[in-house]
Amino acid sequence: MKKLLSILLVLAGLLAGTAAKAQNADGEFAVFSSITRYLSQGDVNSLSSWFAENMDVTVISSTRSCSKKQAREILRSFFSANTPRSFEVTHRASEANKKYLIGQLNAGGELFQVTIYATAPGGETYKIQELNISRQTAVY
After folding, report:
1. How far apart are CA 131 and CA 70, in angstroms?
2. Tens of pLDDT along 83-112?
3. pLDDT band at residue 81, thresholds of 50, 70 and 90?
4. Domain range holding 67?
5. Residue 140 is assigned to a structural domain of this protein
6. pLDDT for position 71
7. Residues near 5 by beta carbon (within 8 Å), at least 6 away in sequence
8. How far is CA 102 from the centre of its chain?
9. Helices (H) and strands (E) in the chain, counts
10. How many domains does the chain contain in total?
11. What is the pLDDT of residue 136?
12. Average model confidence (pLDDT) for the chain?
């Protein structure tokens, strides 16, 4: 009985360690969990809370350096013409106080590649500095 209890405690410890590692792996990119949810829902108001005061926005082939308010309107227009169905992260990377995300947005019957660059200067909250939405091209 003691041996079984010891085995169970070891297994519980291993499982807890695995869960902690998985949580830490996601924790590094936790900044993107809300952002990806808002993208998949087309929730521009919530998404814009992650915008820097001034940022670069590219939608299809139009690029602008704009204010947070202007970026919100650009995305509102995009989502009104392209109702989102889903968003899937395809790549994530990071450097000191910088996070990158590439994903695929299914919206309006088309696929779009979304690239996000967010920074946290001085260890502050991450803010989106660049947001790029381009039509996905077929790969053969």
Report:
1. 13
2. 999 999 999 998 888 999 999 999 999 999
3. very high
4. 2-135
5. no
6. 97
7. none
8. 8
9. 4, 6
10. 1
11. 87
12. 82
> What 3-state class would DSSP assign to 84?
strand
CATH of the domain at 63: 3.10.450.50
3-state helix/strand/coil string of 51-75: EEEEEEEEECCEEEEEEHHHHHHHH
Residue 14 domain-assigned? yes
What's the CA angle centered on 104, arms 98 and 107, to 5 degrees? 125
CB-CB neighbours of 134 under 10 Å: 13
CB contact burial 32-71 (16+ within 10 A = b; e otherwise) = beebbebbbebbbeebbebbbeebbbebeeeeeebebeeb
> Is pTM beyond 0.85 here?
no
In a domain, 118, yes or no: yes
Q: What is the pLDDT of residue 138?
A: 60
pLDDT at 6 over 50: no
Residue type, 40: S
Cα torsion through 101, 35, 79, 89, rounded to 10? 40
Task: Please indicate, yes or no, if residue 101 is contained in any of the structural domains.
Answer: yes
